[in-house]
Amino acid sequence: MRIALGIEYDGTGFLGWQRLAHGATVQGALEQALSKVAAHPVEVTCAGRTDAGVHGVCQVVHFDTTAVRDARGWVLGACSNLPADVAVLWARPVPGDFHARFSARSRRYRYTVLNRPVRAALEARYVTWERQPLDAARMHEAAQALLGEHDFSAFRAAACQARHANRRVLAVAVRREGERVVVEIEANAFLHHMVRNIVGSLLPVGRGEQPVEWLAGLLAGRDRAVAGPTALPNGLAFVGPRYEAHWGLPPEVSQ
Predict the structure, then answer these.
(1) pTM of the model
(2) To the nearest 10°, the Cα dihedral for 147, 151, 152, 154?
(3) Domain 2-103 belongs to what topology?
(4) What is the architecture, at CATH level 2, of domain 106-238?
(5) Residue positions annotated with a catalytic role
(6) Tens digit of each residue's pLDDT (9 = 90 or more) over 98-112
(7) Which of 37, 90, 134, 160 could in theory staple to 206 by disulfide, Cβ–Cβ 3.0 to 4.6 A?
(8) In this predicted model, what pLDDT tens digit does every residue of 76-91 receive, in sequence order?
């Protein structure tokens, strides 16, 4: 039987999603918990890996099992064996051809910048602080150059292992919510550090240090060396993937 799960996590204390032999990861913690519930070793496949310090709003995974448990059993059993910074939100039986990664039509990320003179205390884990005033409207206008399919080499980490840099951005928006500036991006897939590198290049536009057209020029130039720095991980959250409705997953990941 194949089971899909929705996972929420605070990435601060983890070395990222992917299982490692030398440190705590979200995948490692989840597999250990599910193996106890299933009473056999469990390996999970996720919709999109996240880096150290990056959070998950609704990561989706799938795994195969011979254990018979209802949805409530998987959720409560896993949560009782997980650390406090990871929770299983829901569980659904899915067809054997469902794949958390390859069945996803798109993926969504959100980056939050606390834009005020004083640094964060309560929300320091979940926002990046920028003391200089940001013009969210200018950032939004600049970001529209990213829409469509492009070579995103200018926003690709040197360590990226993707076969090519072409990605299709379906939606991008920058808006102000009080003291916060929120960047949301949806794409068919993302390169390593792509969102953080885009945000790092939007911030100079928001501060007025670069013109609105700068981002389009960076995209066309395909040169990572001249783009902005990589934004810190703590402001980034993987909102989740989107799947076709016929898979029967909850509304937050279906369309």
Answers:
(1) 0.95
(2) -120
(3) Alpha-Beta Plaits (3.30.70)
(4) 2-Layer Sandwich (3.30)
(5) 51
(6) 999 999 999 999 999
(7) 134
(8) 999 999 999 999 999 9
